[in-house]
């Protein structure tokens, strides 16, 4: 055996080191890419609005009926069936009514999620999550970021039509 000879040439060592370094760098990117991917997929885009199921709504009520005495005054309200979890009707003024889905936009699937008029009759509240909404359905407080889902209303005489 000669004393000056190495088992590997300088070129082979360089090639082997470069290959190992290249492989380690590519392995270092894998966890980073996985983390980035999971962060991007975890942040879903809620700009489209709440995930309240769309159900067919075609209701009509007589606002002069004895069943709905609260609808005879501004700020009065009534609950009716229909929609996903029911419909809340609010009289804005003599000729204008708004109808809202009672499922809270924060977590509409929660069994306790149901928007109702507060005892003060000044705002709407979901006692399940604590979200509060004004009488036009806009968010006033709580975790909700989207307004209440509103249905179209049309008044003909004393008949109020509610639809989507």
UniProtKB/TrEMBL annotation:
Organism field: Pontibacter ummariensis
Key words, A-Z: 2Fe-2S, Iron, Iron-sulfur, Metal-binding
Protein name: Rieske [2Fe-2S] domain-containing protein
Iron-sulfur among keywords: yes
Domain spans labelled Rieske: 87-162
Lineage: Bacteria, Pseudomonadati, Bacteroidota, Cytophagia, Cytophagales
The keyword Nucleus is annotated on this UniProt entry: no
Single GO MF annotation: metal ion binding
